[in-house]
Specification:
heterodimer, A: about 450 residues, alpha/beta, Rossmann fold, 4-stranded parallel sheet, 14 strands, about 45% helix, B: alpha/beta, 3 domains, globular
Chain lengths: ~450, ~450
C-alpha cells in the first residue's frame, strides 16, 4: 500500500515532505520547527559549539547554567594533533542569584581563573538562552578580559532561542571572522595554499584530505576548524583559495573571506569516490597549473585502483539494498546519494535538519522517482517512511540509531559518533565496510526469527 | 588532556565549573516522566535542550528516547511561551497521542517567567487526556533535583486518597537509578509478597526488548491508574533522599500516606534496612530466598575481603548513589578518601562526614564539586580505584587508576543499565566489578615472577 506522504502528517508538516515524481511543489525548509514536535533538531548554541569546538587550544567557556556545558563535553569526535584543551568542559554554572543580579562578574572571574590555569591565547565565551534574557553584556566583559590578560576573548552570540542550528553556524562564523582579522600592523602575504572549510576532523578525516592535497603539490593553510589552533587560524587570510565542504556551516564565512580578503571559494565534497575525484580535479583546475593537474590525475588513478576492488566486492554483497538518510546538512545528503549508488544501494528516503533550498533542489534531481524527501523530520515520520519504503539501512546521528535498531534496520553513524573516517578514497572503503558490517550482520536474523516464532 | 590540572589546591574564585559532575534539572525531569506509561515528556524551552537531553539519555540507555519541545523562537521569549505551549499541547495529542504529557520548564522559560498552570488553565486538552507539569530551573540544583521535581509533580497532579482505609500496598520511589535497579527493587518486594506501586518506573521503557517494531510508548512505566492509587497505599518508601524525599512528603501531606526516607539500597546494610522496613511495615517474614541471597553475598564478601582491605578509593556521582556506594565500600574494608557529588546539598556532606568519622577515616567530602577538584584531590592523595560515571575515564587514564563505571551517564559501555547495583544481587555485581578492576591491574602490572594463576 503506497500512502501519499502528506496524507497522515500534521497540516503544518505537509509542505516539508515531498515524494519525487509525485509532487511538483517545492519542499519547505529552513523554517522554525513546529511547536510540540519531537524534532531531531538542536539549537543555536549547539550549532555554534560544533563549529568552534574543534579549535584545539582554545578555552571554550559556556556562560550559562551547567547543562549546556555538560551535554557538549567532548562529544564532537574531532581529533587533535596538538592541544587537548578543547576536550574539557568549562561553565560559569550560573545560579539563581546570578540570574537575578546578572552574571557578568561571575563570567569575568571565570575567565580570570581559566586564563591562570590553562594559559590560553584564545577564549571563546558562548552565550546561552538565559544570558540573552538577563542581558549580560558579553561584549564588554570579553573586551575587558582580553585587555587585562592580553589574549583574545571572543564572545559567541549563541543564545539558544534566536533561531535553529543554522543560526549557530552563523554565530560561529562571526566569531571566526573576528578571530582571523589581521591587526593593521601585520602584513599578510598571499601564498599558494588553501583553506579547507567545513571539515571538523572527525575520526581524523581532515588529515586524509590534507594528505591528498599535499600530494597534489598544494598546502593546506588551515582547516576550519578540524585540528586547528590559534596560530594557524590567524594565518587564514594568506590562502589563495577556500574550499568548502560543509556548506551549511561555512558558506557564510567563505563569503565574508571573499569580501574581506578577496579569497575565492569553491564547493567540494570528499564523500564517495565520485565526489572526491571531482572535488580534487576542481581544486587543481582552480590553480591552473599543469604539474598540479598531472599530480592530481595520478593521485586519483592510484587511489581508485587501490580501493576499487574492495568497493566492488562490497557492491556485490550490498546490491539491491535500500537506504534511508537523515543527516544534519544538505551537502552530506547529496554526496550520500551518489556514494550509495557506488555500492549498489538505492536511497528511498532522504532528509536533513538544516538543508537549504538549493540543496534540496539538487537532492530532488539526484534521487529516483518515489523517493521521499523531507526536512526537519520527527521520529514518527522517519519510522513511517522507512517501513513504507522498505529501507534496510538508516544513516543518521545519535538519536536515530536506536530507532533504526528497534525497527530491525541496520545503521551507520555519519555524525559525531562515527568510529572510522568516512572521507576521501580511504573513507569510501570504510563506509562500504561499515554499511556491509551492519546490513549483513547475523544479528538481524534473530530479529526476524523472533517475529515469526512469537 | 588533563595536563593543565595543577596539584596545588588554590582557591577558585569564580564559582564556575571545570569538568562538571552534574548536569541540569530538565534532563532529570525528562527521565522521570519516561517512567509513566504512555507519557510523552515535553520540554518547554528552546529546541536544543530537548535535543541534548534525548541525545544524552539515548547514549546512556541505547534505546529511543522520545520527548517533544516547545521550540522557542525569539518572539516566544519576548512575548512569553503561552502560545507555543498551547500549540504544543494540541500537536502532541494530535500527532503522538500519548495518554499523558509531562511538561518541564527550562532556564529560559523560568527566567522569562512563564506561568505554566495559568497556560494549562486555558489550553485545550482533549477529553480523557492528562497534562502535568513541574518547574525545573536549570540554575538551581542538578538533574537529580529535576528528577525529584517531576516525581513530586506526579503526586501533586495525580495521587488521590479515594479509599476509606489504606490498601495493603507500598509505594516505592526508586530515585534516579537504572531500569535494571528498578526491576531488582521490584523483585525483592515481590519475593516479600507485598503489593506495590513503583513510581516512576522506567523499566520496560528505556530497556525495552527488540520486537522489530518501534513503539513510541513501550509496555513499561507506571500507569495513570497506579499513580492515582498511590494515595491509597499504607506506606511510601522513598529510596534516596535527594531524588525521592519531596514526592514522598508531598504524598504524606496530600493523602496521609506515611513516608519513610531511606538510602538507595546499595550493599548489605542498606538492603537489610530496606527489607526490614518492608517487614515491619507489613508484618511479613523475610523469605528464605532472600536470606539465602544475603548469605551468598556475605559469603562472597568473606571470600574476597583480602582483595579490598585497605585499598583506597575515590567515589563520585549522584548523591544518593554515592552515599550508598561509600557505605558499601566501607563494609568491604576499603578506604574512601575522596567523595564528591556535583549536586548541591549540605546533607550530602553531613551524612558522608559522619560515615567517614565513624570509620575513622580522614577524607575529602564535597557537594557542588567538579571533576577538576576531584582530580586535584587524587593528585594529592592517590587511590587504588575510582568509582563513578564515564567522565571519570579522563582522570583514570591520566593517573593510571582503574575505573569502575557506576552511575549516570555511562556513554562508553553497554548493558550496564540492565544490570542492578541495588539489593544483594547488585552488591554481588559491584564486588565482581571492583575486584575485577583491581585484579586486572595487578595482573597487568605484575612482573613475570609475581604473575599468579590463583588470586
Amino acid at each position: 500500500m503506497e500512502m501519499d506522504a502528506g496524507l497522515w502528517a500534521l497540516e503544518e508538516r505537509k509542505d516539508s515532505i515531498t515524494v519525487k515524481g509525485k509532487h511538483k511543489k517545492q519542499l519547505k525548509c529552513d523554517t522554525d520547527s513546529v511547536a510540540g514536535c519531537v524534532s531531531q533538531r538542536a539549537c543555536v548554541y549547539c550549532g555554534a559549539r560544533v563549529v568552534l569546538n574543534p579549535i584545539t587550544d582554545a578555552v571554550h567557556l559556556v556562560h550559562g547554567p551547567i547543562g549546556c556545558a555538560s551535554y557538549t563535553w567532548d562529544i564532537r569526535g574531532s581529533l587533535s594533533s596538538g592541544s587537548e584543551l578543547y576536550r574539557n568542559s568549562f561553565s560559569t554554572d550560573l545560579q539563581e542569584e546570578d540570574v537575578i543580579f546578572g552574571g557578568e562578574k561571575k563570567l569575568a572571574r571565570a575567565i580570570n581563573d581559566l586564563v591562570e590555569k590553562c594559559n590560553p591565547k584564545l577564549v571563546f565565551v558562548y552565550s546561552t538562552c538565559i544570558v540573552g534574557v538577563i542581558g549580560d553584556d558579553l561584549e564588554a566583559v570579553c573586551k575587558a578580559a582580553a585587555k587585562k590578560h592580553d589574549i583574545e576573548v571572543i564572545p559567541v552570540q549563541s543564545s539558544g532561542f534566536i533561531g535553529n542550528k543554522a543560526a549557530g553556524y552563523r554565530a560561529a562564523c562571526d566569531a571566526l571572522t573576528r578571530l582571523i582579522a589581521p591587526q593593521k600592523s601585520v602584513k599578510m602575504f598571499r601564498n599558494r595554499s588553501i583553506n579547507y572549510l567545513g571539515d571538523f576532523n572527525l575520526a581524523g578525516e581532515a588529515w586524509i584530505i590534507k594528505n591528498y592535497i599535499k600530494q597534489m603539490g598544494i598546502d593546506i593553510n588551515v582547516t576550519f576548524t578540524g585540528d586547528s589552533n590559534y596560530e594557524a587560524l590567524k594565518k587564514a587570510p594568506q590562502a589563495s583559495l577556500n574550499i568548502i565542504q560543509c556548506a551549511g556551516s561555512m558558506s557564510y564565512l567563505a563569503q565574508k573571506m571573499q569580501e574581506q580578503y578577496e579569497i575565492p571559494y569553491i564547493r567540494v565534497s570528499f564523500l564517495g569516490i565520485e565526489d572526491t575525484s571531482e572535488s580534487l580535479r576542481r581544486i587543481a583546475e582552480a590553480f591552473n597549473d599543469k604539474e598540479i593537474t598531472r599530480r592530481t590525475e595520478k593521485l586519483i588513478k592510484n587511489e581508485i585502483e587501490k580501493v576499487r576492488p574492495t568497493i566492488e566486492g562490497y557492491r556485490e554483497k550490498l546490491s539491491g539494498s535500500k537506504a534511508a538518510v537523515y543527516v544534519g546538512g544538505g551537502f552530506k545528503a547529496i554526496s550520500l546519494i551518489k556514494q550509495f549508488r557506488e555500492i549498489g544501494i538505492e536511497v528511498v528516503m532522504i532528509g536533513t535538519q538544516t538543508g537549504r533550498q538549493d540543496e534540496y533542489d539538487t537532492i530532488n534531481t539526484l534521487v529516483d522517482d518515489g523517493t521521499v524527501v523531507l526536512d526537519d523530520a520527527n521520529p514518527t515520520e522517519l519510522e513511517r517512511f522507512m517501513v513504507q519504503k522498505g529501507a534496510n539501512l538508516l544513516v543518521g546521528g545519535v538519536k536515530e540509531r536506536p530507532l533504526a535498531y528497534k525497527l530491525g534496520v541496520a545503521f551507520v553513524d555519519h555524525n559525531h559518533d562515527r568510529k572510522h573516517p568516512l572521507s576521501g578514497f580511504t573513507g569510501a572503503v570504510n563506509f562500504a565496510r561499515e554499511v556491509y558490517s551492519t546490513v549483513c550482520s547475523p544479528v538481524w536474523k534473530f530479529v526476524q526469527q523472533g517475529r515469526q516464532s512469537l | 588532556m588533563l595536563n593543565f590540572t595543577p596539584k596545588e589546591l588554590q582557591e577558585r574564585k569564580s564559582g564556575g565549573m571545570i569538568n562538571p559532575a552534574k548536569t541540569c534539572q530538565p534532563i532529570g525531569a525528562m527521565y522521570a516522566a519516561l517512567g509513566i506509561h504512555r507519557c510523552l515528556p515535553h520540554s518547554h524551552g528552546s529546541q536544543g535542550c530537548c535535543s541534548y537531553h534525548r541525545m544524552h539519555l539515548t547514549r546512556h540507555f541505547r534505546d529511543p528516547v522520545m520527548a517533544s519541545t516547545s521550540s522557542f523562537t525569539e518572539g516566544a521569549s519576548v512575548f512569553g511561551g503561552g502560545a507555543n505551549l498551547k500549540t504544543s499541547i494540541k500537536n502532541v495529542f494530535a500527532i503522538y497521542d500519548p495518554d499523558i504529557m509531562a511538561i518541564h520548564t527550562t532556564c529560559l522559560t523560568e527566567t522569562i517567567g512563564d506561568d505554566i498552570p495559568a497556560y494549562l488553565g486555558t489550553a485545550e486538552i482533549p477529553e480523557g487526556k492528562i497534562v502535568i507539569h513541574c518547574n525545573t530551573p536549570s540554575y538551581v540544583g542538578s538533574h537529580i533535583t529535576g528528577f525529584s521535581n517531576m516525581t513530586k509533580g506526579m503526586v501533586t497532579y495525580l495521587s488521590e486518597a479515594s479509599t476509606e482505609t489504606k490498601k495493603e500496598q507500598v509505594n516505592l520511589i526508586p530515585g534516579f537509578v537504572n531500569p535494571g535497579d528498578m526491576r531488582e527493587i521490584k523483585r525483592l518486594v515481590k519475593v516479600m509478597g507485598i503489593n506495590f506501586i513503583m513510581f516512576p518506573d522506567t523499566s520496560g521503557v528505556v530497556d525495552s526488548p527488540m520486537t522489530g517494531k518501534f513503539e513510541m510508548y513501550p509496555k513499561g512505566g507506571t500507569t495513570i491508574g497506579e499513580l492515582k492509587d498511590t494515595g491509597n497505599s499504607r506506606l511510601t518508601l522513598a529510596l534516596g533522599s535527594f531524588a525521592s524525599t519531596d514526592a514522598s512528603l508531598a504524598l504524606e501531606r496530600k493523602c496521609k500516606v506515611p513516608a519513610k526516607i531511606m538510602k538507595t539500597p546499595i550493599g548489605v546494610k542498606a538492603t537489610d534496612e530496606f527489607l526490614m522496613a518492608l517487614r515491619n511495615g507489613f508484618v511479613k517474614e523475610i523469605p528464605y530466598e532472600l536470606e539465602e541471597e544475603r548469605g551468598q553475598l556475605v559469603d562472597i564478601m568473606t571470600d574476597t575481603h583480602y582483595h579490598f582491605h585497605g585499598k583506597k578509593v575515590a567515589v563520585f556521582g549522584d548523591p544518593d548513589i554515592v552515599i550508598g556506594l561509600t557505605e558499601f565500600v566501607l563494609s568491604l574494608g576499603m578506604i574512601p578518601v575522596h567523595v564528591l557529588t556535583g549536586t548541591p546539598g549540605n546533607a550530602f556532606e553531613k551524612e558522608l562526614r559522619a560515615m567517614l568519622l565513624e570509620a575513622g577515616i580522614k577524607g575529602n567530602v564535597k557537594a557542588s564539586g567538579d571533576l577538576f577538584e576531584f582530580h586535584q584531590w587524587i593528585k594529592n592523595e592517590t587511590v587504588d580505584l575510582i568509582i563513578g560515571n564515564t567522565y571519570g575515564k579522563y582522570i583514570a587514564r591520566a593517573e593510571d587508576i582503574p575505573l569502575v563505571r557506576v552511575g549516570f551517564p555511562i556513554l562508553d559501555r553497554s548493558v550496564h543499565s540492565y544490570m542492578p547495583i541495588v539489593g544483594y544481587k547488585g552488591a554481588m555485581r559491584l564486588i565482581e566489578m571492583i575486584s575485577g578492576a583491581l585484579l586486572d591491574k595487578q595482573d597487568r602490572d605484575a612482573a613475570d615472577e609475581d604473575f599468579e594463576l590463583v588470586m
